[in-house]
């Protein structure tokens, strides 16, 4: 078994007939903040590729928005 690693993962929305895609960003390689930012950016690209189709689940949207708000307020306090 390999060593455990921590990373942020961006998943593409799954459309009928397509395989699910994802990109992982290692916290050890990029650091917590940079890995998170890269994952958010990759997710935005995945969603943009959908064009007019739209397939963004509410729960995922709320969770992402809360995470971004928390990160923003933490950065302002620093």
UniProtKB/TrEMBL annotation:
Transmembrane segments: none
Gene Ontology terms for molecular function: DNA binding; DNA-binding transcription factor activity
Protein origin, superkingdom: Bacteria
Domain AP2/ERF: 6-46
Identification of the protein by name: AP2 domain-containing protein
Lineage, top ranks: Bacteria, Pseudomonadati, Pseudomonadota, Betaproteobacteria, Burkholderiales
Key word Transcription regulation present: yes
Gene3D superfamilies named among the record's database cross-references: 1.20.5.2050
């Amino acid at each position: 078994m390999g060593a455990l690693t921590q990373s942020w993962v961006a998943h593409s929305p799954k459309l009928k007939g397509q395989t699910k895609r994802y990109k992982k960003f290692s916290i050890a390689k990029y650091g917590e903040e940079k890995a998170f930012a890269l994952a958010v950016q990759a997710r935005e690209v995945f969603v943009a590729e959908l064009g007019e189709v739209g397939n963004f689940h509410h729960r995922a949207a709320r969770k992402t928005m809360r995470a971004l708000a928390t990160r923003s307020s933490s950065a302002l306090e620093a």
